[in-house]
Amino acid sequence: MAKTDTLHIVGGGMAGSEAAWQAANMGVSVVLHEMRPQVKTFAHRTGNMGEMVCSNSFRSDDDEQNAVGLLHWEMRTAEGLIISTAHRHRLPAGGALAVDRDPFSEAVTKALTDHPNIAISHEEVSELPSEGHWIFATGPLTSEKLGAAIQTETGADRLAFFDAIAPIVYAESIDMDVAWRQSRYDKGETEEEQKAYINCPMTKPQYEAFIDALLAADKTEFHEGETATYFDGCLPIEVMAERGRETLRHGPMKPVGLTNPHKPEEKAYAVVQLRRDNALGTLYNIVGFQTKMKYGAQASVFKMIPGLEEASFARLGGIHRNTFLNSPTLLDAQMRLRSKPNIRFAGQVTGVEGYVESAAMGLLAGRMAAAEILGRSLPVVPQDTAHGALVHHITGGAEAKTFQPMNVNFGLFRPLDGLRGGRKGRRERYKGYTDRAKDEWSRWLATQKEPA
């Protein structure tokens, strides 16, 4: 194979390690560029590949009732390095897949170092090359120089250095006997646009109790390497509340331009709005509700909102340092940068959240890049698989204007006909999603096996 057919992968975290493993196993020559330990980050301790800098958990291993567990299953079936190594170094953790982190990363490093098709380079890559085959999987701790190069290429407004995450609710868990669909002042040319928001009304006593709970809730502090300087466009709701008890009512919770069809004669004192967050309409984000409250406090406080008393959250809110692309506008379906198609992105920088999701996007990027180098046709990843649901979300299924990092969850899956909705039908529905995904994933993998 000519040197021009070498695949260069930048970043030795979950995504980069998995991408290198997958491409090398397909017969492609790989150079894995990891700047550590020569160039350090504030979070890493070693120069090992696949180092776990936060939790030591890969979360649920239940492949029948949990979307993360389904992702585990798909990765195992694809002979994924990260998930197979995790299983060899697992610790007792109930239904979760937790690992002994140092032996885990040492084993990942050894597997990559020993692979005959993989070379490891420890210099820093600080530019986006115009030639060659590249995957950038640098994660939330992308170096300052490389971050600047990505920002120059993609545009200043297409690369975020902070999450300003509003909580996301499963649509089916919202009580529509209390809430209603309406855009403010019925704006929009179509009925869909005029009913683009779900509205949850509050009386004055409910609003006052909500503000009290918000101000009293436990908050998280910024970590070293982050900053406590907020952007005015993404102020945490508790910071707004601290500026005055009426601030939220004149900001994201203003009640103007809305009429409650359940109580048309009663004017709401405040209104919490939720906006559709995916093309399927299964997920809604709480508008303007980015927060630094701790997760337990968030669930408690947000369930005080009328209509959300029984809400299930696909994601809770937060604000923290996290370099990520506005992938729906920048990446094509093959995870290539539209302006430089010789470059793919993978992992958290694409807007997925978590170790498992990062490794999964590395798995896909590695296979896609290798197939391109080898001149093979790689079938489209089925959307009804966990991998397919995630990659579809980041490359077009998400709303670009409100795009924020996302964990895999069943809200990203296309609904199954004939299954009961709501909480009572959840177990049967989730089993239906996982059965369908396993069939689709197995067929997709089978198409890539070379004839004997």
From TrEMBL:
Name the reaction it catalyses: uridine(54) in tRNA + (6R)-5,10-methylene-5,6,7,8-tetrahydrofolate + NADPH + H(+) = 5-methyluridine(54) in tRNA + (6S)-5,6,7,8-tetrahydrofolate + NADP(+); uridine(54) in tRNA + (6R)-5,10-methylene-5,6,7,8-tetrahydrofolate + NADH + H(+) = 5-methyluridine(54) in tRNA + (6S)-5,6,7,8-tetrahydrofolate + NAD(+)
Q: Which GO terms describe its biological process?
A: tRNA methylation; tRNA wobble uridine modification
Q: Which Gene Ontology terms of cellular component type are present? A: cytosol
Residues holding FAD: G11, G12, G13, M14, A15, G16
Query: Which cellular compartments is it found in?
Result: Cytoplasm
Q: Which PROSITE patterns match?
A: GIDA_2 (PS01281)
* Gene3D superfamilies cross-referenced by the UniProt entry: FAD/NAD(P)-binding domain
The catalytic activity of this protein is classed by the Enzyme Commission as: 2.1.1.74
Top-level lineage group: Bacteria
A UniProt-annotated Pfam family: GIDA
According to its UniProt record, this protein's enzyme class is transferase
Q: Does the keyword Translocase apply?
A: no
Q: Describe the task this protein carries out.
A: NAD-binding protein involved in the addition of a carboxymethylaminomethyl (cmnm) group at the wobble position (U34) of certain tRNAs, forming tRNA-cmnm(5)s(2)U34.
**Family matches, as PANTHER family:** GLUCOSE INHIBITED DIVISION PROTEIN A, METHYLENETETRAHYDROFOLATE--TRNA-(URACIL-5-)-METHYLTRANSFERASE TRMFO
Q: Which family does it belong to?
A: Belongs to the MnmG family. TrmFO subfamily.
Q: Identify this protein by name.
A: Methylenetetrahydrofolate--tRNA-(uracil-5-)-methyltransferase TrmFO
Q: Which organism is it from?
A: Sagittula stellata (strain ATCC 700073 / DSM 11524 / E-37)
